[in-house]
Design brief:
The structure is a homodimer.
Chain A lengths: L9 H22 L6 H12 L5 H8 L3 H13 L3 E5 L7 E5 L1 H21 L5 H19 L2
Chain A binds a DNA duplex through helix 1 and helix 4.
Chain lengths: 146, 146
Amino acid sequence: MKDQPVSKNFGAIIDRTLKIIKANYQKAFIEVGVDLTTEQWVLMDSLFKNNGISQNDLANGSFKNAPTVSRILDLMCKKGLTERRRFENDRRRYKIFLTQFGEETYKKALPVVIDLRLKGWKNLSEEDYQHFTRIMDQVFSNFEQG
Amino acid sequence: MKDQPVSKNFGAIIDRTLKIIKANYQKAFIEVGVDLTTEQWVLMDSLFKNNGISQNDLANGSFKNAPTVSRILDLMCKKGLTERRRFENDRRRYKIFLTQFGEETYKKALPVVIDLRLKGWKNLSEEDYQHFTRIMDQVFSNFEQG
DNA sequence: GCAATACATTTGCCATAGCAACTATTTCAA
DNA sequence: TTGAAATAGTTGCTATGGCAAATGTATTGC
């Protein structure tokens, strides 16, 4: 008797893992007095590496959609972390910048994030990471076309 | 020169994978005329296997918190998929049941879900699944204590 | 038997997310 | 060069999710 291929409920595993990751980020930010949500951190990280990119670029780089980025930026601008400046030669677009305060916050959060990444990968190897990325990329591309 | 351990941004990979999984579920449900969100499906699946469990049990089984389950059930009850009945001997608790319509919907959705699971794991092996669960469980437990 | 405590669920508040429709601007094409 | 289509961003609507506080019910200790 051969085994049938059994459908695997990987979604639930991914979901619960993501939830606990986010909870740890949130808790750590609060502990060190950084007023950031995990998603705000994601955008900050993009901005720190590419200051002045557009909202669309931010959206693509973070797998968020445009309305979500627009709203997260509303809050970040309100907190003084970021700033919108119009393109000179395309008045539809903004360039998004980290403010001084945004950079300070980034630098305060970064070591916390690095610690969390190390903590999360504890007891796992470089080889495990290769497996992990290969598998997740495969799942992603399995779902990509539709 | 030794390599330093490099912190790994597994969170972003997990996030984007979960997003595309959910998008595929949503799309597939719409295509076959099943009026369910992915999270409603998760609760239905629990209920189908354990009809009559409490909201707390549903929450624990799905890694959702109690308010979220309460609200998802509000919508599911409104759609006629589920039904709340009070415990006889503990009037704080509800037993949650799939209605007739809920079961029909479940049976309509199940083959779609199985197809999606197979699709998502295409070009991946049983051994990959062992890697996957081991790695995700390790990440989870790395973050568990706090 | 009653006060303190625990428990199950709900409500309020806020943030993220997806979709569709809308506005403003730019580009393209006949 | 003007009208159609594309592009960037916003707004409205709905759903999920996390936290804290509130409500109603049960249990426990005295």
